[in-house]
Design goal:
Number of helices: 28
Helix content: 55-70%
Number of strands: 15
Strand order of the largest sheet: 3-4-6-5-9-11-13
Structural class: alpha/beta
Oligomer: single chain
Radius of gyration: 28 Å
Number of domains: 2
Strand content: 5-15%
Length: 669
């Protein structure tokens, strides 16, 4: 096929929108590119179009298809740059990542090499657009996995149809497209995260390109001046609208994704360098960005990720510098890597595949070594590793003998005896981090259950939607209440990051430490038309009506920085002549931050209410007015706000005092 500059212009729009989406640059109080994720969908349509044209053109001219040549071209296009980026990431991962993070990086690198990143990141990442996901250097390779899986399936499908049902090729392609988009729309409701990463949920986008290629080859491109002048303008408008007005709450992929996909289709089908849109997309600087778009896509995300790891609250200038660095590396990579390896005169088939095999073996060896050596823990002091490793404590209900209603919701119970008191731990991830210690302390003495879900406080009548994750709904809240009311006698431990839910802001310690999490993206829905505070009071009231004792865990001091990482970066100074370098926060700031929560908790009165104040263990308001994060032997946090095992022990010790008091009251002692 003849070269079409406007396709490179589309690639430029796609890659720039993705980069600006990941950069999260706020201008005039708004991130204008929240819908930039559709840049990947633009790439999918273009890929489907170009690949299908190659396949059908070869079949039309020769009535055969060479899989070897096809996959060699794909390998020359994709593998060299991918392997180079992974190799360059390795020393930065070694320097900046804690052991568990290094292991996770190594697994992601191996999955990227094997084109299975989309499945790996579904099982290891809670949400694609979440702030924690932005710290995974190779997260963006999920889209390569989808494309490669399409490249494996589609040539075979088209070849089979060509041999046995050539006249029905278009009909069958349309049928597969319809099934794929219907599947995506249904899955968006049932499991939005899985839907995002699944290849079959995305194949319809590539099949749109395939159908465009078939129609173009069969019937040619229209020369109607009205269509060629107007439809590309409409297409560009739909693409621009999606980039500017889609956001994290937009169902995606779904029927709504048809808006940008239709836009891309109109540009591909009707645009040329002679019309208005074609002239814009064919503008040389735009085409230049499109030409290096693959390198730019691969480089930008690791640069952003490692930059954020080094600077949790990057400025706009930091982000601009990252973008410029990615641009420079992409230009160099395009000329010295992409063009070189795609040229069979420079790298013949044997030399090319020999180089790829050697590189894959070497990179696989290094990354497997990271995994089998436990992320090389000896790089850092033991107490730093211990605190950071507490994140690895996860629910394994089957091993612990728990009966779980829904493992993903951590809705679990363990019964030690019919006559024993039930103790329930209910709240968000902050409460979940107390669970391992509490389970151990309660074992054999009490029946135990928990229903903790990240970002989901125990408040009846309240739903919180975190973009595609809609699991924190009133159905879950009612199940939590039912679990408590159906078990008597019971003690219910309730807590969480209530300052976040009440104030709707991330934590700023006032001393340069700002937690890099945007809590505004979690939409709180008050299902019963009352305020959040009223709903919480009503929840505790219903819990008390069941005869339960309630232990309110007041807010754990927030920090504003990743404690183990900050200490890791300065660990040489931590113990020098037994002098501890303090990484603490202001107790005054803690009081200001938690004022509304304290007022809410204090307003709930009952003889069966018991109160736990973690600040008594973490803060010394009398001596220095500071809240500490560690002592000489232990770190009390595993990240910005979740406690380490030691920190959890400190809080559980306070909780156990209240449990014993409540148990004595229940037994009449």
């Amino acid at each position: 096929m003849s070269y079409r500059a406007e396709i490179d212009g589309l690639r430029a729009i796609a890659v720039v929108s993705v980069i600006l989406y990941h950069a999260k640059i706020v201008i005039f109080g708004r991130d204008w590119f929240e819908g930039g994720f559709i840049g990947v969908d633009i790439f999918f349509v273009i890929s489907g179009y170009l690949i299908t044209r190659i396949i059908l053109t070869e079949l039309e001219h020769t009535n055969t298809f060479s899989f070897i040549k096809f996959y060699e071209r794909r390998a020359r296009r994709i593998l060299p740059m991918l392997l180079v980026v992974i190799a360059v990431c390795i020393p930065f991962a070694w320097q900046k990542l804690l052991p568990l993070e290094l292991i996770d990086f190594a697994k992601s690198a191996l999955s990227a090499i094997g084109f299975g990143s989309n499945f790996f990141f579904y099982f290891s990442t809670t949400e694609y657009g979440a702030d924690s996901a932005l710290l995974k250097p190779l997260l963006h390779t999920w889209s390569l996995g989808v494309e490669e899986q399409f490249y494996i399936v589609v040539p075979i499908v088209i070849l089979v149809i060509w041999k046995f049902a050539r006249a029905s090729l278009l009909t069958l392609l349309i049928g597969m497209l319809i099934m794929s988009i219907q599947f995506a729309d249904v899955m968006e409701v049932r499991n939005s995260e899985l839907n995002f990463f699944l290849p079959f949920s995305r194949f319809w986008e590539l099949l749109v390109g395939s159908i465009l290629a078939f129609i173009e080859l069969r019937y040619g491109r229209t020369k109607n001046p009205i269509l060629t002048q107007t439809l590309p303008i409409i297409g560009l408008f739909l693409i621009t609208h999606s980039i500017l007005f889609f956001d994290a709450k937009t169902p995606h992929p779904s029927f709504q994704t048809l808006i940008p996909i239709l836009g891309v289709s109109l540009v591909l089908a009707f645009c040329s360098t002679k019309d208005f849109v074609g002239k814009i997309l064919s503008f040389r600087p735009i085409v230049g960005v499109g030409v290096i778009s693959y390198s730019l896509y691969l480089w930008h995300f690791p640069i952003f990720a490692f930059g954020r790891i080094g600077s949790p609250t990057p400025s706009t200038y930091d982000k601009i510098e990252w973008i410029l660095l990615a641009l420079v590396l992409s230009i160099v990579s395009y000329f010295f890597i992409e063009k070189t390896f795609r040229n069979p005169k420079v790298f013949n088939r044997k030399l090319f595949f020999g180089s790829v095999v050697v590189s894959v073996v070497a990179l696989s060896y290094v990354n497997y070594d990271f995994i089998f050596k436990d992320g090389y823990k000896d790089r850092f002091p033991d107490f730093v590793i211990k605190a950071a490793s507490d994140k690895a404590i996860v629910w394994e209900p089957s091993a612990l003998g728990y009966a779980c209603y829904n493992r993903t919701e951590k809705f679990c119970k363990r019964e030690e005896g019919k006559d024993k008191t039930w103790v329930y731990l209910i709240g968000d991830s902050v409460m979940g981090y107390l669970s391992p210690v509490l389970r151990e302390r309660l074992e054999k003495k009490f029946n135990y259950g928990e229903a903790n879900y990240g970002g989901c406080p125990y408040v009846i009548g309240v739903s919180i939607n975190y973009s595609r994750d809609k699991s924190c709904d009133n159905h879950l809240q009612q199940r939590r209440l039912s679990m408590v009311t159906n078990s008597k006698p019971s003690i219910v431990i309730v807590g969480g990051r209530f300052p976040v839910y009440i104030d709707r802001t991330n934590f700023d310690n006032g001393e340069g430490g700002v937690e890099p999490v945007d809590f505004s993206r979690g939409e709180i829905i008050l299902n019963e038309g009352i305020s959040f505070s009223q709903a919480f009071k009503k929840t505790i009231s219903k819990t008390l009506e069941s005869g339960a004792h309630v232990i309110l865990v007041y807010p754990i001091p927030e920090v504003g920085f990743h404690v183990p990482k900050k200490i890791m970066n300065h660990f040489q100074k931590i113990k020098r002549n037994d002098e501890v370098v303090n990484f603490d926060t202001s107790y005054k700031r803690y009081i200001e931050r938690t004022k509304s929560t304290f007022e809410l908790f204090d307003s709930i009165e009952s003889t069966r209410i018991h109160r736990v104040y973690p600040s008594k263990e973490f803060c010394n308001q009398i001596v220095n007015g500071r809240c500490s994060t560690h002592d000489n032997n232990n770190i009390w946090y595993s990240d910005y706000n979740h406690t380490s095992f030691k920190g959890s022990e400190m809080i559980v010790e306070l909780i156990m005092e209240k449990i014993e008091k409540a148990e004595a009251n229940i037994r009449g002692n």
